[in-house]
C-alpha cells in the first residue's frame, strides 16, 4: 500500500505532466495557425495542395527588366531560374528591392502564375552596411573602405 505522501506526489506529477502536454499542444496549434509557408515558383507549379485563399510566401530572384511601377502599384516577376510567377504589389517597395536581387513576397495566389502581394521583403547580402552606420563612422573619424566587396574600418591613418 502506498503512503499518503507518495499518492500526493503521484497525483502532483500526473497533473504537472498533463499541464505540460496541454501547453505544448496549445503552442503547436498556435504556431500552425500563424505559420506562413515559403515556396519557390517551381514548387507552386508542381504542388496541387496550395490553396488560393491561404496566405503564403513566394521567394526567388526579381527577374531583370521585369519591374514595372505605376503610381502606387509595382508589378514584377519572381524567378527561381526554372519557373516564374508574376507578382503585383500595392505600396512602396523596400529600398533594397531591385532587379536581380533576392526577394520574398507575402500574400495570396490569384492562380498558379499570378500572385497578389501584401508585403515585400527584400534580401541583402552580408556585405550590406546601412547608411546610418556609415555616417556614424564618419562622425567618429573612422575610415571606411571596401576591398573585394567587403567593408573594412581603419581607426586612424598613419602618416610617414
Can you walk me through this structure?
This protein is α+β, with helices and mostly antiparallel strands and 160 residues long. The protein has two domains: 37-122, Nucleic acid-binding proteins (OB fold (Dihydrolipoamide Acetyltransferase, E2P), Beta Barrel), CATH 2.40.50.140; 126-160, no CATH class. Helices cover 29% and strands 35% of the residues. It has three helices and nine strands; from the N terminus they run αβαββββββαββ. Strands 2-4-5-7-6 form a five-stranded mixed barrel. The protein is elongated.
Biggest β-sheet strands, sense, barrel: 5 strands, mixed, barrel
Strand content: 35-45%
Judging from the principal axes of the Cα atoms, what is the shape?
elongated
CATH topology of the largest domain: OB fold (Dihydrolipoamide Acetyltransferase, E2P)
Helix percent reads: 25-40%
Strand segment count: 9
CATH superfamily name of the largest domain? Nucleic acid-binding proteins
- Helix/strand-derived category reads alpha+beta
Q: Over the alpha carbons, how many angstroms does the gyration radius reach?
A: 26 Å
**What ranges have pLDDT less than 50 throughout 5 or more consecutive residues?**
156-160
Amino acid at each position: 500500500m502506498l503512503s499518503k505522501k507518495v499518492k500526493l506526489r503521484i497525483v502532483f506529477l500526473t497533473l504537472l505532466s498533463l499541464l505540460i502536454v496541454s501547453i505544448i499542444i496549445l503552442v503547436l496549434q498556435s504556431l500552425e495557425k500563424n505559420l506562413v509557408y515559403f515556396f519557390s515558383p517551381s514548387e507552386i507549379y508542381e504542388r496541387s495542395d496550395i490553396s488560393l485563399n491561404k496566405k503564403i510566401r513566394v521567394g526567388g530572384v526579381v527577374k531583370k527588366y521585369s519591374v514595372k511601377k505605376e503610381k502606387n502599384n509595382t508589378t514584377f516577376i519572381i524567378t527561381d531560374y526554372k519557373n516564374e510567377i508574376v507578382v503585383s504589389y500595392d505600396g512602396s517597395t523596400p529600398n533594397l528591392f531591385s532587379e536581380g536581387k533576392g526577394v520574398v513576397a507575402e500574400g495570396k495566389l490569384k492562380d498558379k502564375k499570378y500572385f497578389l502581394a501584401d508585403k515585400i521583403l527584400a534580401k541583402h547580402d552580408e556585405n550590406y552596411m546601412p547608411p546610418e552606420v556609415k555616417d556614424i563612422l564618419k562622425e567618429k573619424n573612422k575610415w571606411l573602405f571596401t576591398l573585394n566587396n567587403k567593408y573594412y574600418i581603419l581607426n586612424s591613418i598613419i602618416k610617414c
